[in-house]
C-alpha cells in the first residue's frame, strides 16, 4: 500500500468508526455513552448504515450508494476498503478530465 | 453498478421476497403493458393467495393473505390518487419488495401506472437521470438520501415522494426546506399513506395537510361510534382487506389501531394510536411484547419506549437496567437478543434503574404517540 493510500485508508477508517460510534445504538445514562460496550459493524441497522455512508460521501466528496450493490463486506475494515476504492476511482476520473 | 433489466413476467413471478427482486438494483418498463394485459399477467404469474407476515406477536408469525386481484385494485386506486393533476412518468422505488408496502408500491404500482420503474433494494444503485413527473416510493432513509441528491431533484420536473404508514420523519420537512433553497426548480411533494398489513392502503394526505382522505373504494364502516368526545377508532370497509390468518373468508370490515376524528364522508384527522404499538419500517410492533421478549433474552429488567426520531420517524428505544451502567460490556448479549427478537431498537439505553411515573409508566421523553396537531 502506498503512503498516500495508507494515509487515506487510515483517515477513512477513523471517520467510519467515529461516525458509527455516534450513530449507533448503545448509550449509558452514566457518562452519556456506553462505557466498555464496543461498537461492531453488525450493530448498524440498515438505516444507520445509509446514514454512515452519506456522512462519508460528504466528508470525502464521493458517491457511494451508486456502487453499493457490489459491497459484500461485514466489518469496518471492509467498509473502509470499499470507500477507499470509490474515492480513488472518483479522483482518478476527475484527474483524467482535467 | 448497472441495473438488471427484468421483464414484466419476471417481476410478477412470486414470491416477492426472491433474490431477483431484493438483492440488486433493477429496472422494468411497464409502458407497453395495457391494463387488460396486466390483469392477465397477474392471474397467470401470481398465486391465488399472496402471503404477508406481520410482526410483534409472541407466537410464530402467521401470514395475512391477499388475492392478487385485490392487490391490483388497491394499487390502481392509489395510482389514480397519485397521478391526479398531471400524471406520473416514472417510478424510483426504495421500498423493499419483500415487505407488503414494497410488494405493492415498488412492484405493482408502476405496473398499474404503466410507466418504467427503477427499484433500489437496500438503497443501492444510482438515481436514474429522469426528466418529468417522477414518483419516489420512499422509506425513512430516502429523505436523507435525497437531501444529498438535490441536483437530481432539480433535474426532474416534479417529484412526489410517497411514505407509508408511520410518523413522517422530520427529515422530510428538512428536505422540502433545503430543496426550496438549493434546488428552486424542483417541484417536490410528499404524500403520506395510511394503512397496515391487515388493512391495506386506507387513506392519503399531502405533507402539511391536517386531514387525510380515504382512498376511492374505502369508506367508514358504519355510523360514528358513540364516544364521549369526537374521537373514535378507525373502522373501514374496503375491497382490499387481507384475509385473517387461518381464515377461508374474505373480510369486508377492519378495525385499525388508529384513533381518529371524522370530517365528512371521506376525510379524517389522525389523533392517536390505540395501545402500545409502534411501526418500524412499516411493520407494527407491540412494545410490551417486544420488551417481554428482550427481557427473557437478556435476563434483565427492560422497557421499550416509543419515540419519534428526527431521521427515521416512529421507532422505539430499549431501556436495559444494568447496575454498572455501561461498565460491563453487554454488547454481545444485546446482539444475540436482537437477533432472536428480530427487531432492532433505534437506541439501547443502559440505565441503573427504570424510573416510573405515578401511574407506573416508565418515564422518558415520550411514552405514547399522539399525532402533532398542525
Automatic annotation (TrEMBL), chain A:
InterPro entries: ACP-like_sf. SUPFAM superfamilies: ACP-like. This is Acyl carrier protein.
Automatic annotation (TrEMBL), chain B:
The keyword Ligase applies. Keywords: Ligase. One of its GO terms (molecular function) is ligase activity. It comes from the Bacteria. InterPro entries: ANL_N_sf. This is Acyl--CoA ligase. It comes from Nocardioides zeae.
Amino acid at each position: 500500500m502506498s503512503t498516500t493510500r495508507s494515509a487515506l485508508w487510515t483517515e477513512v477508517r477513523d471517520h467510519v468508526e467515529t461516525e458509527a460510534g455516534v450513530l449507533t445504538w448503545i448509550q449509558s445514562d452514566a457518562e452519556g455513552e456506553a462505557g466498555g460496550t464496543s461498537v461492531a459493524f453488525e450493530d448498524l441497522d440498515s438505516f444507520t448504515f445509509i446514514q454512515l455512508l452519506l456522512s462519508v460521501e460528504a466528508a470525502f466528496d464521493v458517491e457511494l450508494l451508486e456502487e453499493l450493490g457490489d459491497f459484500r463486506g461485514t466489518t469496518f475494515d471492509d467498509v473502509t476498503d470499499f470507500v477507499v476504492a470509490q474515492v480513488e476511482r472518483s479522483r482518478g476520473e476527475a484527474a483524467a478530465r482535467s | 453498478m448497472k441495473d438488471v433489466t427484468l421483464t414484466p413476467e419476471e417481476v410478477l413471478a412470486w414470491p416477492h421476497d426472491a433474490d431477483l427482486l431484493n438483492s440488486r438494483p433493477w429496472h422494468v418498463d411497464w409502458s407497453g403493458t395495457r391494463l387488460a394485459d396486466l390483469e392477465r399477467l397477474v392471474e397467470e404469474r401470481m398465486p391465488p393467495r399472496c402471503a404477508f407476515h406481520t410482526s410483534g406477536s409472541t407466537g410464530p408469525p402467521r401470514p395475512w393473505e391477499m388475492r392478487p386481484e385485490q392487490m391490483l385494485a388497491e394499487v390502481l386506486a392509489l395510482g389514480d390518487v397519485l397521478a391526479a393533476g398531471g400524471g406520473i412518468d416514472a417510478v424510483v422505488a426504495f421500498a423493499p419488495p419483500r415487505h407488503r408496502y414494497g410488494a405493492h408500491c415498488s412492484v405493482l404500482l408502476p405496473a398499474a401506472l404503466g410507466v418504467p420503474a427503477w427499484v433500489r433494494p437496500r438503497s443501492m444503485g444510482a438515481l436514474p437521470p429522469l426528466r418529468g413527473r417522477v414518483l419516489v416510493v420512499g422509506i425513512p432513509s430516502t429523505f436523507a438520501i435525497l437531501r444529498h441528491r438535490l441536483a437530481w431533484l432539480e433535474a426532474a420536473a416534479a417529484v412526489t415522494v410517497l411514505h407509508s404508514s408511520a410518523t413522517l420523519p422530520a427529515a422530510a420537512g428538512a428536505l422540502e426546506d433545503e430543496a426550496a433553497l438549493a434546488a428552486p426548480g424542483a417541484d417536490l411533494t410528499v404524500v403520506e399513506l395510511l394503512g397496515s398489513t391487515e388493512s391495506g392502503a386506507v387513506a392519503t394526505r399531502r405533507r402539511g395537510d391536517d386531514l387525510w382522505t380515504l382512498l376511492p373504494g374505502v369508506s367508514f364502516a358504519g355510523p360514528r361510534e358513540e364516544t364521549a368526545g369526537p374521537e373514535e377508532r378507525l373502522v373501514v370497509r374496503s375491497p382490499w382487506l387481507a384475509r385473517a390468518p387461518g381464515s377461508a373468508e374474505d373480510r369486508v370490515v377492519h378495525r385499525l389501531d388508529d384513533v381518529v376524528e371524522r370530517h365528512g364522508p371521506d376525510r379524517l384527522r389522525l389523533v392517536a394510536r390505540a395501545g402500545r404499538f409502534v411501526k418500524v419500517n412499516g411493520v407494527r410492533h407491540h412494545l410490551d411484547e417486544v420488551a417481554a421478549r428482550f427481557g427473557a433474552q437478556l435476563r434483565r429488567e427492560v422497557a421499550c419506549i416509543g419515540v419519534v426520531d428526527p431521521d427515521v420517524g416512529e421507532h422505539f428505544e430499549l431501556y436495559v437496567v444494568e447496575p454498572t451502567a455501561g461498565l460491563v460490556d453487554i454488547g454481545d448479549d444485546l446482539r444475540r437478543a436482537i437477533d432472536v427478537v428480530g427487531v432492532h431498537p433505534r437506541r439501547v439505553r443502559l440505565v441503573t434503574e427504570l424510573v416510573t411515573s405515578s401511574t407506573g409508566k416508565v418515564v422518558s421523553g415520550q411514552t405514547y404517540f399522539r399525532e402533532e396537531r398542525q
